[in-house]
Amino acid sequence: MPRSRAKGFSLKTQIYGLVIFLGIVSFFGTLLVSVDHTKEYLNEQMSSHAQDTATSLGLSIAPYLASEDIIIVETMVSAIFDSGYYAEMVLTDTDTQQVILSREAPKTVDTVPNWFIDMFKLSPPTRESKINTGWRIAASLSVTSHAGASYYQLWQYALKASAAFSIILVISLVLAYFILNAVLKPLARVEQQAIAVSKKQFNINKKQSITRELNVVVNALNIMVDNVQKNFNSLTNQAEKHTQEAYIDKLTGLGNRRAFDSQFTHHLSEIDDDSIGTVILLELASLRDINQSQGYQAGDAYVLQVVKIVKEAFEQFSEFTFYRINGGSFIVSIPLPLSLCQDELQKVITRFEQLNTEEYPNGFAKLVSTSYKKSDLLKSLLISLDSLLTEQTSTLRKPEYTLDKTSGLSLGLQEWSTLINELIESGRIEFLVQPVQKCELKEQEDEHSAYLEKPFYNELLAKFYYQQDIIPNNQLFAMAERLNLTEQLDIKLITAAAKLVKPDMSAPIAINLSQQSLLSENFCQWLTRFISENNQCRNQVYFEVNEVALLKDINLASKHIHQFKALDIGISIERFGTSLTSFKYINGLDLDFIKIDGSYIRDIDLNKDNAHFVQAVNQICHGLGINVIACHIENENVLNVVKSLACDGCQGDYIQAPKALYVS
Questions:
Q1: Alpha-carbon gap, residue 58 to 327, rounded angstroms
Q2: EAL domain location, by residue (predicted)?
Q3: What is the number of other CB atoms lying within 10 angstroms of the CB of residue 638?
């Protein structure tokens, strides 16, 4: 499920914040203490200066005061006062207490900001000296220092101290940054390793730090990652060995008869009632002669040549499946009517005819084909193909199909292009919903009612309407992919589905994503813009991606999956196991769910090989933290087996059949 983002601040941010906070506090604290200390010094200096002036000036004017020469006294006082260092000078007669002479200067200080004056109040002292005329004290002289010069000195000191302390602070913070960065860098690597583990990426951190405790954590995490990786490799090797023995032809790497029976039977059960597909039987009539005349190595080369021709012809069909059901017999299944894959079939026939030489006494290869629909039985289809092969060699039968309840839709490429573009522009969509429930449920009186609990998510199944008729999804998306229009269809689906997202939803919704959208840079850019405009979709939407689409370009798909997860969109791989390839590709993919293909589930209570396969998938995925879903559960026996194998989720008509939800 989409991961919730880690909350809180990183340790690095907290430590840097603490260092900066302490640095700033230290800066201002030191500055304030220093300025305050200087203020006290200036107060003492003003006091001493006022006392010295009062004493020296009193001695200087005493002779003139005795002779009552007030003009000279006034001149001498003014000369000293006008120096600007004094706020007030007062000469007072001791006997009468009358002021003989007074000088006072403005107390404002223009060169220093008022806020600084208010913050650091200076107390200009007043000092007094007695003036003697003979043995009599004739007057007293009081001198008050002016704070202006001291404020200016204090202000200049504060500026210089601020500059010096700022430089020290910056240098200290820079040094602290590099020191902390060196100390915390190993911790960042541990964090990245932990994040990688949460994304199912198991990387070893080989670098050690100088911190002993951190090295203990690193070593423990490395051991855990190494054990998980070893366990994953061991389990995947066992699962691959079992899969190859049970379902894969060793020479060609194609699915064998057992894989064909299981997967094609399941395919018939899940297609729409109106869907029409094509099944082709290839017979290498000369294989036995080649083996006898030229040896088995030549026979193997013959088989591989046929496989290459068929794959090259049908590689554009993502849903194309190819099986080797016995030595010289192959089955090809395409979910499209014959009329829409006729050109590719003709290419194969033409190539076979070109290779018809004397080297192949019974011809290079024989090919017959027929159509199938949901109601057909596998046994009947194989009998029909065998009959065609007996009756005529290299026959391409092309029945005509029209739109009705049983025959499906048969159109040319241009007609399909017009239809799909009209659907994208103005087509009507009906959504059905089917939940993916948890296998481990609370006990209730009615066991079946337990599945009313909150599911993992609700899968949306879309039906497209064109002129009041339902377009079969298999044909629609197969043709849209062929015409490079599935990306636009996906955008229409996602836009419509986003309207269903509500804060009070019982569970997130899941939407099937096509191969073209998964591998498209343009789609990723559109999705980023769409999610930014529809934040309600975060943590409320899953994409279900077909395994075959994922394996088309695993590196590009992995890149885009990580982009989806960054948008808080969950990822589920559906039809897991149909490709019959190695499971190792899931290591490193940030997946939430793996949905095992229904071909392994539908008869799991009767098929031990399928049970072993599901058990192996569970062990591998649970080791990676991925939930496993068993789909197409149709009865209680299958459900019980699935639960006993420790699957996490279950889906199917037995749990809950799809029900109508919304029409756009």
A1: 132
A2: 413-664
A3: 21
Paired sense of beta strands 86-93 and 99-104, if any: antiparallel
Return the number of other C-beta atoms located less than 10 Å from residue 346's C-beta: 12
Angle of helix 212-247 relative to helix 147-198, nearest 10 degrees? 30
Helices and strands, counts by H and E, the chain = 19, 18
Q: What is the pLDDT of residues 40-70, one digit of tens each?
A: 888 888 889 889 888 898 888 888 877 777 8
* Number of neighbours of residue 15 by Cβ within 10 angstroms: 15
Is residue 223 scored above 50 in pLDDT? yes
Which structure tokens are listed for 309? 């021709």
Verdict on whether the full-model pTM lies above 0.85: no
> Helices 413-426 and 486-498 sit at what angle, rounded to 10 degrees?
20
**Per-residue burial over 205-234, b = 16 or more CB atoms within 10 Å of its CB, e = otherwise:** beeebeeeebeebbeebbeebeebeeebee
User: Which CATH code is given to the segment(s) 426-663?
Assistant: 3.20.20.450
Q: What is the CATH number of domain 11-170?
A: 3.30.110.200
The residue among 2, 456, 423, 472 whose CA lies nearest residue 275 is 472
Q: Answer yes or no: are the C-beta atoms of 629 and 572 closer than 8 Å.
A: yes
The CATH fold of domain 257-391: Alpha-Beta Plaits (3.30.70)
Q: How far apart are CA 571 and CA 510, in angstroms?
A: 9
CA distances from residue 559 to 6, 231, 531, 577 in whole angstroms, order as listed: 22, 25, 18, 22
Q: Please tell me the distance from the alpha carbon of residue 117 to that of residue 140, in angstroms, as a whole number.
A: 31
What are the tens digits of pLDDT across the range 425-452? Answer: 888 888 999 999 998 754 444 544 444 5
